[in-house]
Structure formats: C-alpha cells, structure tokens
Amino acid sequence: MQEIVETKPSPPDKVILFWTPYYNDSDYTVGFGRDPFVKNGCQFTNCITTADRNSLDKSDAVIFHAFQVNSRDLPAQRHPRQRFVFFLYETIPNTSIPCVGKCLPERQYLPHYFNWTMTHRRDSDVYVAEQYGAITPKLSTFPAQLPDELPPGTLPANPAELLNRNYPQLANKTKMVAWFASHCPTHSQREDYVQELAKFVQVDIYGKCGTMECLPRNSYRCENLLDNYKFYLAAENSLCPDYVSEKFYRALNQNIVPIVYGGADYAEYAPPHSFINIADFKSPQDLAAYLKLLDSHDALYLEYFRWKKHYEVVRKPKKGWCDLCAKLNDPQLETVTKSYADVGHWWIRKLPCYPGSSFLMSHT
C-alpha cells in the first residue's frame, strides 16, 4: 500500500505596503516582492513588499516614513488586522515630528494611529539598522581554550620575531585624526569639541565644516584616504538614544580607530577595545594626550584591531526586515492589539536627546 505523506501547507503571504517612499526610494532600498526575504536568508520568506496602493485592503503592514507623511494623503480606511508602522532612521532633537502625532487633522488622526515602530532605536517594535551598519561574529574563528596542535612539519612562532616586532602596515599612517563633516553647526556641538581638540593634536577636517575636500563624497576614494590616518572622528550631529550612524561603521570597516561622540552605549554595538569614546576623557586635551600615547607606541595602537580576527562589519544589514516578516507571521501577535497614544512622546519626550552644550560644559 502506497504511503501517504502529509505536506505542511505553506503559510499565507504577508503583504507589506510602502505607503510613502523613503526619500527618493519607493522600495526603501530593500527591494520589491518576495525576493528581499529570500536572498537575505530570512526565516520567513512569505512576505511581499509593494508600493502599489491598490494593495491596501490586503496589506498586513503599512509603512510610513515619518519625514514624508502627508496629512492630506493617508489611507482612507484601515482594517483591524493591519499594522500601521512608524519608520524612521534620523534623530530629531528637541523638536516635534512634522505631520506625525497631533499635527494630523483630527478627522484623519486619532490617538493610537501607529501600531508598531521600526527605527534604529533598540526599544522599537522592529529594530532596524540597515542604513548604518552592524558587527557580526565570525563564528568559525573563535579560539578554543588552548591552541590547536600544529600540523606536521610546522614550527611554532619564532621568539626572535615575537620579541623584535615591526609593523609594516603602519608605514602609510603618517597623519593623526581625520574628520568628514558637512553639517555645521549641530545640536551635539561636535564642531566646538573638534575645534578645541585641534589645539592639541592634528585634525584634518574634510567637507563644509573644514578647509579640506574629498570628492565625490562618501566614495571609496574618500574611504581609502583614511589609510593615511590613525584615528577617525565618528562624531554624531545629535546625542540621541541608540543613534549610531554610518560614520562609526565606516571607520570600523577600515584600518583606522574610530573616536566616537554620540548618545548611544557603544559597548553594546562593538567589541571591547575597538573604539575610543570621547566621554571617557575629562577634556579634549586629555584625549589628545592619549592619542599621542597610542601614536608613539605601535603595539598599544594595534591592540585596537585585534577584534577583527573574530568579528566583521556588515554595512547594509537586512535583519530588521527579516524580523518584520517574522513578527507578521507570529500567531501570538495576530490577536494582540497594540498602538501608540502619542508616538512623538515615545520618540522625543520620553527619553530626550542630550544637548551638546551640557556635555561640553563638563568636558572642556
């Protein structure tokens, strides 16, 4: 008798509608259809992205880029099963969000308009860091408690070489600190800190905030320019919760030590001894003294690159989109009703950005 094999039915499709574009990208840089979830190895691949508003009635999630919400261009209706998603990467220090929250007309806006948040903050319903970056372990390279035995015919390391090291990879690093910035002044007042730091150590400033230029901006040519420097200022324009932008990952991806200035807990984002935090120093003069110490001791400087043996930088991580699809497939969430009474309160007022003036007052 022929054996009957039961096949598990495929889960139904989950439609994700991009109601607004993300700046000029109607596909939010992730792509349309099912392909983004397949090619990125997501656990669930039954999600389909689209910008076709005719798909509103069958959409499971409707995404709004907060900077481009138009109060006169909102869905005319919504179904109880749909999740309206507040999507944002940028920080907005000490301001209200345009056309999000109570600035929407009452006939179109009610409290609890957004069900989920999808931002770079780790307390979001969906945490997404695609525009910035991430660090992931090279799982196969973590060492055992003791080193492996050597293959036949292989000798251990030569003590003479270990005790008389030279570092040819540092030959081109003849300059100290580089900073790429074209947004000045800023809420973090990073430009004021850098101005003070430059009194004690060489700082080359590229872009509109300085006197040097590298074109085209954000190109591989400019990133390769960093090979001549030992340190890179990854200073954010605002000191906001969990805000770690591409500046940090750009430096980590190169053979240069990032000097961070931001409102995030960087120890949660990167391995120990992979960056220098301005907040750890009483003043720019103290930071400059430490940079000069590292500059004059190659072994101390190279300690900041040991992490690369076991970790690597991912410049455009897609995990957040995989997580969104997983949440839409979670049966425990199908009947859970969640919404934000005032998403602006969560985004801005509940945990405000820290003024740069307050930081500088105690660190200069």
Walk me through what this model shows.
There is one protein chain. By secondary structure, this protein is of the alpha/beta class. It has two domains: 14-131 and 318-356; 133-147 and 156-315, 3-Layer(aba) Sandwich (Rossmann fold). Helices cover 21% and strands 16% of the residues. The termini are far apart. Helix 3 (190-197) packs across helix 6. The protein is globular. The strands form three sheets. Strands 2-1-3-4-5-6 form a six-stranded parallel beta sheet. Residues 13-128 form the Fucosyltransferase N-terminal domain.
CATH evolutionary superfamily of the largest domain: Glycosyl transferase family 10, C-terminal domain
SS summary, helix count: 10
Major sheet: order of its strands?
Answer: 2-1-3-4-5-6
Alpha carbon gyration radius? 25 Å
Strand content is 15-25%
Mean pLDDT over the full residue set: 87
Report, as a whole number of angstroms, the end-to-end distance: 85 Å
Protein topology:
Elements: E1 14-18, H1 35-39, E2 47-50, E3 61-65, E4 83-88, E5 116-119, E6 126-127, E7 134-137, H2 159-163, E8 175-180, H3 190-197, E9 203-206, H4 220-225, E10 229-235, H5 246-253, E11 257-261, E12 276-277, H6 284-296, H7 298-302, E13 311-314, H8 319-328, H9 343-349, H10 356-363
Helix pairs in contact: 3-6
